[in-house]
Design goal:
Length: 519
Amino acid sequence: MVDNPKSLNVLEAVPPASFERNIVTVAKGGGIMFVGKLFLSVSRFVTAILLARFLGAEEYGVYSLAISAGGLAAGLAMLGLDSAVVRYVAIAARRRDEAGLWGALQVSLGLSALLSVLVSAGLYAAAYPLAASVFHEPRLAPLLQLTALIVPSLTLGDVLAGANRGFKKMEYPVIAQFIVQPAIRFVLIVVLAFFGLSAAWAVAVFGAADFAATVMMLYFLHKQFSLRRPLRAARRDTGAILGFSLPDWLSGLLVTFRSHVQSLLLGTLNTMTSVGVFAVASQVHTITGLFYSSINTSARPFLAELHDQGDHTQMGRIYQTATKWSLTMYLPVFLVVVLFPAPLLSIFGESFVAGAVALTILAWVELVNVGTGMGGVILEMTGYTKLKLVNAVVRLALYLGLNLLLIPRHGVVGAALAALVAEGVINLLRLVEVFILFRLLPYHRSLLKPATAGLAALAVTWTIGQWFPAGSNLLRVAAQALLLFAVYVGATLSFGLSPEDRLLLARLGRRAGVMLTRR
């Protein structure tokens, strides 16, 4: 649709924005996403504690498998349209091409709705054979059927979120998916806890909350771009969209399968208890990478626009700035997880402390992801979805081979080690690919500042910990974690701020001043 400018009826294209404006907008969107994801993760964290304590490790493992199956089914039905709609909506909106924009929305939402219904029916029909033959767990069958009913909502919700992000309205998916959805889920689980909570009710609550978020995102999309218009008013360049989305879908499907494959393999090669322990460790690990994933999500439409304009210089500056900001935000969190893995997991219950080593390894996995930048996002938003597919195949092959080798011997620790090796290889591969294609690297000498501040914070906290061991005392752990953050922030500020940092802080200061004045 947008790859060939001559094929468009451009209605007054928006002029290119400066780096300063773009990076501030990326930071703003990333900040909104971060706040939303933080609320989502804290809500999920608290909800996971409730579920783990009320259900126990084994039944929580059955619940996790059912939700993982639903995620796989939704990924299958997505057809890569959740990513394609971000790119095509962003470029068409910048060019004010309403016909192309309306066509992109029709193709993305229509195809994903049709496929989600077909996949849902397939999962519902296969629920009992899968539970009996694959997982040898009859209790899983009705949960799989219940999950199948949720698949259309899961699928459409992600595509609608992509459409809203294409308009650079990061706050809309945040409100629906990251605030309303987990809030509804938490409230319903608390209520049901008084009447007898089961895995089936937990799955039903998950589906009800997701449906509410999907309806909200449909409303937000209509608010930005009226959906009450003739279907024939659209220019549906289906071939161009599918040419982008199919390789992206295949790679996304592999990534979705990869993200759930460890739970599936733990369930078949190990025990249901190990599934529950690894699910909790992964939940804590997910929280630690919030800012990185937020800034990547926010940068997507901007990278698509800059590549469409041929401005690789500004792409490189965003690449480096986003990497520095992500690493700066992640390092103190990484150090806390590495220093206190067992106390963190003890919040869920003593039976989950067995995942402490796995959690430490997963923290290193996220450090590799953050430290190598948004190479995968750049490849995707610049249209190299076939290369992304190759990477996904390599990644999945590594995950499968390493998990099959390590899980039978080492359980949850083996699953974490497999993730560390696979993510290290694939991130290095992306780094090389982006450099070959665009001559861009995510590194700048300013990265030495957060790295040095992290070493200083680690040295001080470790020394204090030798004098006053925290053990399993959560109050001491919290005090030492606060000390680590204080030393880290102080050291970072003492090294000075870059122009991008000062620009962002000045913008935040002006916004705060305006808000105070109005108040």
